[in-house]
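User:
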Amino acid sequence: MVRVGHLLDERFTLDFVLVEASPGYRDQLIRQSKRNPRIRFLEPWPMGSLVERANDYDIGMFLLPPINVQRRFALPNKFFEFVQARLAIAIGPSPEMASIVEGRACGIVADDFAPETLAAAIRGLTTSSIATFKEASDVAARELSAESNREAFLRLVDQALKGRQVT
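Assistant: Predicted structure:
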């Protein structure tokens, strides 16, 4: 995603809000971005304010090359945070995320996982298309919220527990 940031034109900035999961990884990304003032690394935000603070942005970008089955079919929390923040979504062709983005017309799906491809797709966006995607994310956010899915989730848990034998 840092590479995507380097390939975007002056209309775009890229802010990362990262929690240090692997020692030194965040610092490595900062070094890679040091010469580009349009790529910034912000201090982590409190979990409870992620969606509200992200709403100040226009696009949520997530590029996750499918190096294993888990990543191929990933539906990360970050993706849903972008939707709940009512952002336009920009992703690679991860099938589960792409199904939601394309089905709800709330963003763009690159043709492949190359940073150049996603950057080109983002550069093709206009103020109007971003606004349209954000409006679609607003609609999708209601449908994909925990509140809207609570009963279905509880029903599935109940069914799973009833089918389980207690020893």
